[in-house]
């Protein structure tokens, strides 16, 4: 058997040239590819910048939630609440007293007792700077509430003023003022918190009380309830002697209702009333609004309030009867405010973001075709 051996003819083309000529990819026609242009590059860069900006602002918008307010009837009529007070009166502590009378006619001692501290009405530079900071800050919040409203509710802390600083150097004269501070627990009914001359003495039947100073200048007809104004009415005959000269100039460092919470502005913080009249009645008419705060950072049940004030000079000779002092007459709103913080669902965020990015891509492509017809 014969075997035939075939020999393959060797190519004379060098191996390097074979590799150079190797092309395993299919060829494309000139009409199948896009020709690059400077205009198209600029449009692409602008499109990517816009897309990055859109993503940033969309995420920021999603993270920045909204604040919503709902009004519902207040049905929690048997709740208790605190009134927090810090006030300095330009009279010695032994000559005044602070107490409450409300429509339940409970003994005023059941609400608690405020602390009294001898003080000087003229403040030191440090105390004046501290008080002015509270006044200016609170004034700004009241005037710019419409601009900073949502920002206040979204904060994680409340605006609670710091306590009054002490005198660095004690004055040489005796204390001529009284600082009254602390908290009282109130019934959720209309009432009257007041600072008046003399010490309060409860009546034998436990309903109402009388201030000892009243017996010095008049005979009380009765101890009035919360809806009487002024606090004490007098008989139609002249007083026993002329009314003593009382100066109820005062500074309100802080006054609030309920527990401290974010977003709540206390309108009376930093309020200052100074008079040279001997017997003046300061009246504050307060409407308290129950408020439930339900934000991402805070959940609280508290109260906010609005206030109107009035000043009246007591002069029995001219027919202006009444009792000098500082009176906070408060009542409750029938509606409760529920403050909630809301954010759109996550799927809506992705849908809006995707549609916006797709729109930018389509617009960029159309601009490229218009500016470069050969693409």
From TrEMBL:
Segments forming a coiled coil: none
Alphabetically ordered keywords of this record: Membrane, Transmembrane, Transmembrane helix
Transmembrane feature ranges: 39-63
One GO process term, biological-process aspect: retrograde vesicle-mediated transport, Golgi to endoplasmic reticulum
Keyword Transmembrane helix found: yes
Tagged with keyword Cytoplasm: no
Record's subcellular location: Endoplasmic reticulum-Golgi intermediate compartment membrane
Pfam families: COPIIcoated_ERV, ERGIC_N
Primary location group: endoplasmic reticulum
Span of domain Endoplasmic reticulum vesicle transporter N-terminal: 19-107
Annotated Endoplasmic reticulum vesicle transporter C-terminal domain residues: 170-365
Membrane topology: Multi-pass membrane protein
A GO CC term attached to the entry: COPII-coated ER to Golgi transport vesicle
Alphabetized InterPro entries for the sequence: Erv, Erv_C, Erv_N
Family as reported in the entry's similarity comment: Belongs to the ERGIC family.
Protein name per the record: Endoplasmic reticulum vesicle transporter N-terminal domain-containing protein
């Amino acid at each position: 058997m014969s075997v035939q051996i075939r020999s393959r003819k060797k190519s004379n083309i060098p191996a390097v040239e074979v590799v150079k000529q190797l092309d395993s990819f299919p060829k494309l026609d000139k009409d199948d590819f896009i020709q690059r242009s400077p205009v198209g590059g600029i449009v692409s860069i602008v499109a990517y910048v816009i897309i990055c900006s859109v993503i940033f602002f969309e995420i920021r918008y999603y993270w920045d939630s909204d604040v919503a307010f709902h009004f519902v009837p207040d049905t929690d009529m048997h709740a208790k609440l605190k009134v927090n007070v810090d006030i300095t009166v330009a009279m010695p502590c032994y000559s005044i007293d602070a107490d409450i009378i409300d429509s339940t006619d409970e003994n005023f001692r059941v609400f608690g007792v405020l602390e009294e501290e001898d003080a000087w009405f003229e403040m030191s530079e440090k105390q004046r700077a501290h008080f002015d900071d509270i006044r200016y800050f609170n004034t700004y919040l009241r005037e710019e509430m419409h601009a900073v409203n949502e920002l206040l509710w979204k904060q994680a802390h409340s605006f609670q003023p710091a306590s009054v600083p002490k005198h660095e150097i004690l004055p040489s004269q005796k204390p001529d003022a009284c600082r009254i501070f602390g908290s009282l627990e109130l019934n959720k009914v209309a009432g009257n918190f007041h600072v008046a001359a003399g010490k309060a003495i409860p009546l034998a039947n436990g309903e109402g009380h009388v201030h000892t100073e009243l017996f010095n200048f008049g005979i009380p007809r009765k101890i009035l309830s919360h809806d009487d104004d002024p606090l004490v009415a007098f008989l139609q005959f002249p007083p026993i002697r002329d009314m003593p000269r009382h100066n109820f100039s005062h500074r309100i460092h802080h006054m609030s209702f309920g527990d401290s919470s974010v977003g709540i502005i206390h309108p009376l913080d930093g309020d200052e009333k100074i008079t040279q009249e001997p017997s003046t009645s300061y009246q504050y008419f307060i409407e308290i609004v129950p408020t439930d705060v339900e934000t991402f950072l805070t959940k609280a049940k508290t109260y906010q309030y609005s206030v109107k004030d009035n000043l009246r000079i007591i002069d029995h000779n001219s027919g202006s009867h009444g009792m000098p002092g500082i009176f906070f007459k408060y009542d409750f709103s029938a509606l409760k405010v529920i403050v909630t913080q809301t954010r759109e669902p996550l799927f809506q965020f992705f849908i809006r973001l995707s549609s916006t990015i797709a729109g930018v891509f389509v617009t960029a492509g159309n601009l490229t075709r218009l500016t470069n017809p050969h693409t």
